[in-house]
Amino acid sequence: MNTPITARAHTNIALIKYWGKKNAELIIPTTSSLSLTLDQFYTDTTVVFDEQLTHDELSLNDTLITDNTLTKTTAFLDLVRQMAGIDTFARINSINHVPTAAGLASSASGFAALAAASSKAAGLDLDRQALSRLARRGSGSASRSIFGGFAEWVAGEDDFTSYAHPIQENVTMDIQMLTVVLDGSQKKIGSRQGMQHAIATSPFYNTWVAESAVDLVAMKQAIANNDFQTLGELAEHNALQMHSLNFTAKPAFTYFNGYTLSILNLVQDLRRQGIQAYATMDAGPNVKIISQSDATQVICAAIKNNFPNAGIEVAKPGPGISYL
Amino acid sequence: MNTPITARAHTNIALIKYWGKKNAELIIPTTSSLSLTLDQFYTDTTVVFDEQLTHDELSLNDTLITDNTLTKTTAFLDLVRQMAGIDTFARINSINHVPTAAGLASSASGFAALAAASSKAAGLDLDRQALSRLARRGSGSASRSIFGGFAEWVAGEDDFTSYAHPIQENVTMDIQMLTVVLDGSQKKIGSRQGMQHAIATSPFYNTWVAESAVDLVAMKQAIANNDFQTLGELAEHNALQMHSLNFTAKPAFTYFNGYTLSILNLVQDLRRQGIQAYATMDAGPNVKIISQSDATQVICAAIKNNFPNAGIEVAKPGPGISYL
């Protein structure tokens, strides 16, 4: 206690998506999911519990935060305080090395880093499974950012059985994600709201749950086999299934915009030319292109040729949480 | 015989889509569908059977055709010759008043006009149900273009039971379709090939068949109630369901491009502003906006504001086939 603890956690992008909760309070998902943690994007968070404080104090990228991000953070720290049996408030300093416009999930790295730093600062000594369960309470995808490389979040049935575990922390496959940034606007529909609406109204939702389980088994096999092509095909198929839930919700909504489809078509055109590139998208318009290192140049050239102003971020497999 | 017969048929746009056959040779669909015939776009076709001819002769928009459009036309005329008990070849002159780039189904008006003109020229006197069955053999959607206004193509089980019938030929509702032409390129994947691939590989296909039946009942009720909003919501939902089958096929394909999503988002934004506009899309990138006459100006202005070069075609409910 009273010693500042700093933890670093990296973002992850799901190859088998998480899209829907069976328990919204505990964040127990309807399906298991699988992601790749990325090296380029991470959050460093320092937490100190300080008896002088009369409430939690949060700064994000050196700016003091008082909006509902603070409310969410305090709710999360209440869980930590409960586990540690303390009632002290905390000072949290978080630096996000994630381009906020990129549609990369900063909540995944953010809550993973917060779980690691705050639990240790509160005097708890949690193993990674317990950290994953704790991070999950802040943001579902954060459960996976505890681990490096390929990680699976097992849906489970309750707070105790829903956590991520590593599938392959030191990735042997040549794999990278190119994030194509064409639209920096904020998403109109948050992912929490979006997934709840899809569960409630898409006629395809039950089929998605069943198919997702099949895709997950095949994805783990593809990782074990170092089979990049199968991994890419499964990831693109799974992402398009997830977004089809939104297209078929009542009323329909979508995170796709014109740029999304332009890049998706470009990726599918590249494949017709023999270049292995696959698309995945999350709760925002920007597309991530799953590819291998020898294809970077030709993919970037094709994008720049069509969209001279596109920003392209190249990320490789990244590590799990660490303390700095 | 030997008397030229000219028939006119109008295009139609499906509000409840046709996407898949249970019998490819006879064109028996997996689902019933429902469309609106449009006034603006039509095909005039003249047929004369002439014993001087040694093969069928086809001209389209005053150009002699010798490619596989002629092969399809001859195969269609073989059905007519069989019904009429003749073996004479025909001269066919077809003028398409459908902007070919607009993604409006010229095969629907084309085969409906051909069915009407060729059967009468061959000496047959078919009622509209028989004409609808015949037109279906050329192109499934042509079965609906025999009728004006709202028409339903009942899937049926075989050649005899699969035909369209009118739901409301003289449309009482204020309804129109704005076709937004932004992309004039040819579709990469024909609809026959696309729907077969979706049936064979989309995990959502069976659910689509079941949902489509539910949507159809609701759509007929909306027409009977003059309920434009429900009609629009159902049509957009049904179209997005159909396109989700393509997004979730293995491998995935799509008729959407960047323009498609830009216009879809624009339509959904207009609704948030209280303007009743709904999108529907077929086997091409251009979007049709289902709307009412008092909204034309604001919708067109919104499109032109974003896409100054967009072509916009406004179509109202149109009539069934006629002889000229």
UniProtKB/TrEMBL annotation, chains A, B:
Keyword annotations of the record: ATP-binding, Lipid biosynthesis, Lipid metabolism, Lyase, Nucleotide-binding
Limits of the Diphosphomevalonate decarboxylase-like N-terminal domain: 9-164
Keyword Lipid metabolism: yes
Domain of life: Bacteria
Principal EC category: lyase
Domain Mvd1 C-terminal: 178-309
Enzyme Commission number: 4.1.1.33
UniProt cross-references to Pfam families, sorted A to Z: MDD_C, MVD-like_N
Similarity section: Belongs to the diphosphomevalonate decarboxylase family.
Matches recorded under PANTHER family: DIPHOSPHOMEVALONATE DECARBOXYLASE
Name this polypeptide is given: diphosphomevalonate decarboxylase
